[in-house]
Amino acid sequence: MTINLIFKIAAVGILVSVLGQVLKHSGRDEQAFLVSLAGLILVLMWVVPYIQELFETIENLFMVGM
After folding, report:
1. If you compute the radius of gyration of the chain from its CA atoms, what whole number of angstroms results?
2. C-beta of residue 43 within 8 angstroms of C-beta of residue 12
């Protein structure tokens, strides 16, 4: 995992937060929810491969001992 991924996640978090607040104050709660959901899905798409790699590494670690 690189530091760039952490910066990307932070940037998405800040952007989603600002957009969510603007949309909520303008009375568009549904769009604010959709922006939050889109941000969550985007970040999950970036993080899931690293989680999969972690589980594969753990699985290989325990297979070596058997």
Report:
1. 17
2. yes
